[in-house]
Amino acid sequence: VQLQASGGGLVQAGGSLRLSCAASGLTFRRYAMGWFRQAPGKEREFVAAISRSGGSTYYADSVKGRFTISRDNAKNTVYLQMNSLKPEDTAVYYCAADYTSAVVITVYEYDYWGQGTLVTVSS
Questions:
Q1: pLDDT tens digit string along 61-102?
Q2: The pairing of beta strand 32-38 with beta strand 45-50
Q3: How far is it, in rounded angstroms, from Cα 38 to Cα 20?
Q4: Rounded Cα gap, residues 107 and 72, in angstroms
């Protein structure tokens, strides 16, 4: 199983980025997907999650209204659209997959993890 995250980079505060996570080696439509992030010196934290069908989503309070998670099961890809970025959003962003139909928000429940993509927001 491979989860390949991409789309990170350097952006000014208030800007936008779109992260992608391409999955292979698994039946993508059977997995709930999530995005997490980890800032230097901090623990990995939940950002957003989406059910296997895409019908349910859940967001951390810190990103609600600014970030949108979506998926394309035909392309085996999950996305994270990030708008109105703030310096405190700076972190390595990871995608993860869990074999379940529900939305999953806890780190330890996920089965597979991508390698991460760095997002840096300058003030």
A1: 999 999 999 999 999 999 999 999 999 999 999 999 999 878
A2: antiparallel
A3: 17
A4: 23
